[in-house]
Design goal:
This protein is mainly α and about 525 residues long. It has a domain of about 350 residues. Helices cover about 70% and strands about 0% of the residues. It contains 21 helices and no strands. Helix 19 packs parallel to helix 21. The chain is globular and about 70 Å long. The protein starts with a helix and ends with a helix.
């Protein structure tokens, strides 16, 4: 009897998947999800979650997609690519760490218990993984992948337009936010606009920066590097990607997010270095067929000169960028003062030199929390303290320097409802999931990078485009992981999902071609 019921249930969900209306509805919801990615603190969702700033508008279509698409897909026997195995195993590790965390002697704090924090944190991870799995399974053809990118572009243009309108606040000497702009912004966020930084449709400037550097810029640069565009060639081709890239870069500057600046320097620096290496190899190949310059020593000299010129150009670009950014964000001028400050701090404040340098750069509040989080990891290195539980233990592990920081004192004040966190995804993974969870998460990123590299080398069309974008997004995630530590923002999952889908489709085509070749033999 149980077997018949299971079979009937599987058949039911299989029929649901085949229903045209259901599939079309799911597809419309998916496009809506991609368009709404920029809205990260939607008031209607925030009211349900208790004014939680991490309340993306995309959760509305996501919830419907889970019911209409993801559950029917999985329950009817839908398959997942091997690239998803590490993140699914990571989820099991998180469950293990959380189970162990329930047994630890952790006292309630700010009205929250270990169980309530774990359930809340697990729910954010489930939301993030739902974003990822839907991105893996729904855009399963090249046409659907292209339509998905068009929806991403639509959301990008909307947030860029709204962010550009906010530029008047940055350049306005009165530093007053017009009431009409705030009222419009409150339709998408429960937070006011800022006088000196753009936030787009996001909750705060660093979240807009995170969207630009993890989602929009990688896709735009991927299109430019692979010479592909969402516009037909007869309409101008790549000009739309070039314009949007410049627009995104300009808005990124006015977010004044230093982590965003670091991520952008890393991504553009890696691109410049890769292009330099490619140029050196191209020149070397030409010289090999030249009748005049065929000696290996001569070829090596030319290649070395090109690489040296590229590195010099990279250093010059970094210096000019830092100078330009200092005109927008005065905090960047402190970078040039670091050498003198380091020497002074080492002489006068040997034990606190690192914290003083971080304070000079305006980052001490984050650094002391990273320090406390790493101390938690040192005490529970294997499986951590369970997802969401690091905040219970941070206060007693803060360095003495934290007492001088107003923001940290406010964070740990019992009169404030905010629950403390490590302010870093990497530190959070170490403290809450230990070596086991951290290494599993990194293994997933490594598998994604391998998939992106495969698409770059052997893929074609939009698959190669997604492969390049995925590699750039994964590179940007390294510094971005020092900032946001939540799992529920969709921009963290969209490109990994599209990358997994593209690599999965590419590997299936290779398998089919191989099978046809064997059959032909």
């Amino acid at each position: 009897m149980k077997g018949r019921r299971a079979f009937a249930m599987t058949a039911f969900f299989a029929n649901v998947r085949r229903e045209g209306v259901w599939n079309r509805t799911a597809w419309v919801l998916w496009l809506a999800l991609l368009v709404t990615v920029p809205v990260t603190s939607f008031p209607a969702i925030a009211a349900i979650l208790g004014s939680n700033p991490v309340s993306p508008m995309a959760m509305i279509p996501l919830g419907l997609l889970v019911i209409l698409w993801l559950l029917p897909y999985l329950l009817s026997g839908g398959s997942l690519p091997r690239l998803t195995a590490p993140i699914l195993f990571f989820f099991l590790v998180v469950l293990l760490s959380s189970a162990i965390g329930l047994s630890l002697p952790i006292e309630p704090y700010k009205g929250q218990t270990v169980l309530s924090r774990e359930l809340r944190s697990l729910s954010t991870l489930v939301i993030g993984m739902a974003f990822y799995l839907i991105a893996v399974t729904l855009p399963n053809t090249e046409l659907r992948m292209r339509r998905s990118l068009q929806a991403v572009y639509a959301g990008m243009v909307l947030t860029l337009i709204w962010a550009s309108l906010q530029l008047q606040l940055v350049f306005d000497s009165t530093k007053r936010v017009p009431l009409v702009l705030n009222n419009i912004h409150h339709l998408f966020s429960f937070r006011d606009l800022l006088e000196n930084r753009v936030v787009g449709l996001a909750y705060e400037p660093s979240w807009l920066s995170n969207q630009l550097i993890l989602l929009y810029l990688p896709l735009l640069l991927g299109g430019l590097l692979t010479r592909q565009s969402l516009l037909p060639k007869r309409w101008g081709g790549l000009w739309i990607e070039a314009i949007l890239t410049a627009w995104c870069a300009a808005i990124l500057i006015f977010t004044q997010s230093r982590i965003g600046y670091l991520s952008a320097v890393l991504v553009f620096g890696a691109l410049l270095l890769a292009l330099t290496v490619g140029l050196a190899k191209k020149i070397e190949r030409r010289q090999r067929v030249s009748a005049q310059m065929t000696t290996p020593r001569r070829r090596r000299s030319i290649r070395g000169a090109v690489l040296l010129a590229g590195i010099g150009l990279l250093a010059l670009t970094a210096g000019l960028s830092a100078e330009a950014l200092s005109r927008v964000d005065r905090r960047m001028t402190r970078l040039s003062q670091i050498p003198d400050r380091v020497e002074q701090a080492q002489l006068l404040f040997r034990e606190e030199a690192g914290f003083r340098m971080a304070d000079h750069l305006g980052m001490a509040e984050r650094v002391v929390l990273w320090h406390a989080g790493l101390r938690v990891f040192g005490e529970y290195p294997l499986t951590g303290v369970g997802l969401g539980n690091a905040g219970f233990l941070l206060k007693d592990r803060l360095p003495a320097y934290a007492e001088r920081l107003d923001e940290v004192r406010v964070t740990f004040s019992l009169s404030r409802p905010e629950f403390p966190n490590t302010k870093s995804l990497w530190v959070r993974l170490l403290a809450e999931t230990g070596v086991l969870g951290f290494s599993t998460f990194l293994a997933w990123l490594a598998v994604l990078a391998a998939g992106g590299w495969m698409l770059l080398k052997t893929g074609s069309g939009i698959g190669r485009w997604i492969g390049v974008a995925g590699l750039l997004a994964l590179l940007a995630q390294i510094p971005e992981g020092l900032s946001l530590d939540t799992f529920s923002l969709p921009q963290l999952w969209v490109i990994p999902g599209l990358l997994s889908a593209a690599a999965w489709g590419h590997m299936r085509r290779i398998g089919q071609d191989h099978s046809r070749g064997v059959a032909g033999d």
